[in-house]
Design a protein that fits this description.
- The chain has 15 helices and two strands.
- Strand 1 and strand 2 form a beta hairpin.
- Helix 2 packs antiparallel against helix 3 and helix 8 packs across helix 9.
- It starts with a helix and ends in a 5-residue tail after the last helix.
Length: about 290
């Protein structure tokens, strides 16, 4: 029995030695993980630098030349495809920025993807042409709409269409604006209700404006609606929870602000409501 006990003890010691991590391995793994992240971060920055370089060159070209355009884009394409191999998620998170419109030197508004389509025919069938076509296809993987769909699914009770026609559609537009500007952003649950409250009042105001044909009535009713529904307060409530999400509603807010501003208000310029209106216009970037 004693011999059996000794044998079992020996096996236990040998087993622990056999399966224990070699000294320093955990630290090595941690360093390799950090190194991998650093490589991805560096490559991401390289893509953005090459994007800026390509845009600058294109802005300085006075006419479109398919061959030159493709040559100018090679560094951007190569660095992007390299980033895709390291992390598809990180690469796709840049698609919103890469797909933005910009002005070319020959007076046209262009996109990277559009220029690939216009210029790729100048390349003979080859691996390089295949790479450009792959690059173009990968640019369609815009994470914005994935985020929008998930966000819409997460807030059904706040974005219900019951008694609020158009709310879900307007919310979806807001989320597209938000995630286009903030690809890695997140909409907290606490933001859903203030967003729904603000959008509901804004939609109601625009509907009232649309069905009021007399200009004076339209402007006067608009300013009354604006204050009675406390749109400035609702905007401020959303801004307090998520400033970027509030900013994503600015296009909708600007759709009615001129009509509101033209309405008659009898409280004077120093009235708290007028101060609130001025502050609101400043927040949404409205022209004065």
């Amino acid at each position: 029995m004693k011999k059996l006990f000794v044998a079992l003890m020996a096996l236990t010691v040998l087993g622990s030695q056999a399966f224990a991590a070699p000294a320093g391995l955990e630290g090595k793994v941690a360093r390799e993980v950090k190194s991998g992240r650093d490589v991805i971060t560096t490559k991401r920055a390289e893509v953005l630098n090459n994007l800026e370089r390509f845009r600058d060159v294109t802005k300085n070209r006075t006419e479109f030349n398919a061959s030159y355009t493709i040559q100018d884009m090679v560094y951007l394409m190569d660095s992007y495809l390299e980033l895709v191999k390291l992390s598809r998620d990180v690469a796709f998170s840049l698609n919103g920025e890469i797909n933005k419109n910009f002005e070319a030197g020959w007076g046209k508004t262009v996109t990277v993807k559009g220029l690939i389509g216009a210029g790729v025919h100048s390349i003979a069938p080859s691996p390089t042409r295949d790479d450009f076509e792959t690059f173009s296809d990968l640019l369609d993987n815009d994470p914005t709409f994935v985020h929008v769909n998930k966000t819409m699914e997460a807030a059904p009770r706040f974005l219900s269409e019951e008694n609020k026609p158009g709310l879900r559609n307007e919310a979806a537009k807001t989320f597209v604006e938000y995630f286009s500007a903030n690809p890695s952003g997140e909409v907290q649950e606490a933001a859903y209700k203030p967003l729904a409250d603000l959008l509901t009042s804004a939609i109601g105001l625009n509907q009232m404006i649309a069905r009021t044909h007399n200009v004076d009535d339209r402007e006067n009713f608009a300013i009354q609606w604006f204050f009675s529904n406390d749109i400035p307060g609702k905007y401020a409530a959303l801004k307090a929870v998520n400033p970027e999400l509030a900013a994503a509603t600015n296009k909708l807010m600007n759709s009615f602000i001129d009509t509101v501003s033209n309405g008659n208000f009898y409280g004077g310029a120093d009235h708290p409501d007028m101060k609130a209106l001025r502050e609101f216009k400043k927040d949404i970037g409205a022209r004065y």
